[in-house]
Amino acid sequence: MRHLFLSTALLLSSATAQVTIFSIPALPPGMTAPSQPPAQSNPATPAGPVQKVEIQEVEVTSPVSTGTSPTVASEDVGEVSIPLRATDKDGRPVAGVSIDWEVKNTGKAPVYVISSQSGGAEQLLGTTIAPGETWKGTTTTGPDGITALLLNAAASTAAALKVTGPTGEVKNLREAAQTIDWIGE
Fold first, then answer.
1. What pLDDT is recorded for position 124?
2. Beta-ladder partners of 161
3. pLDDT tens by residue, 113-160
4. pLDDT tens track for 44-94
5. CA distance readout (Å), 7 to 10, 12, 15, 64
6. Which domain holds residue 94?
7. Which of 54, 111, 121, 171 could make an S-S bridge to 105, C-beta 3.0–4.6 Å?
8. CATH of the domain at 107
């Protein structure tokens, strides 16, 4: 067992005393003592069953990607994130909701599915959707009730999304099916 030895000197007005403390157990390697006690937190009220799932965008128009790798996230101007949120009847986020995505390329150039994101985690997909083709995938909402799909295009094209959750077909904030148009050269 490892021990930590502390020695301290106390200065008193006319005398000096030295106190040595032996055999205080040290923390195991890699552990550090907390700087303050953990804060008391009130447990969150659990969310109820899913009442609403909604795409958090409206129809999107974006410039085409200028990057050389359209299937890799690079914060390029052509990248479009489509987030959706699942909530209960009180508007609280619901985690673990399975969402089915269908992305149909309705344009004349490829559309790229880069990744999906949920709860701070990203799943790389790197899929190319040829004109007229449809990609299908499933994601799950994170603790914040949100999941998102990241799309991209390197030339003028368009995509239509059909998203389905436990409440049926998911619409956007305008109560419409989600579309994306990439405009460029």
1. 94
2. 103, 178
3. 999 999 999 999 999 999 999 999 999 999 999 999 999 999 999 999
4. 456 679 899 999 988 899 999 988 888 888 888 999 999 999 999 999 999
5. 10, 16, 17, 67
6. 52-64+74-173
7. 111
8. 2.60.40
| Residue of 181, 155, 185 lying closest to 61 (CA atoms) | 181
Name the domain count of the chain.
1
What predicted TM-score, i.e. pTM, was given to this entire model?
A: 0.72
Q: Where are the beta strands (DSSP E) in 56-167?
A: 60-63, 80-87, 98-105, 111-118, 121-129, 134-140, 146-152, 157-165
Q: List, in order, residues 6 or more apart from 125 with CB less than 8 Å away.
A: 113, 114, 115, 116, 137
Does any domain span residue 45? no
Q: How far is CA 8 from CA 12, 15, 18, 19, 22, in A?
A: 13, 15, 6, 6, 12
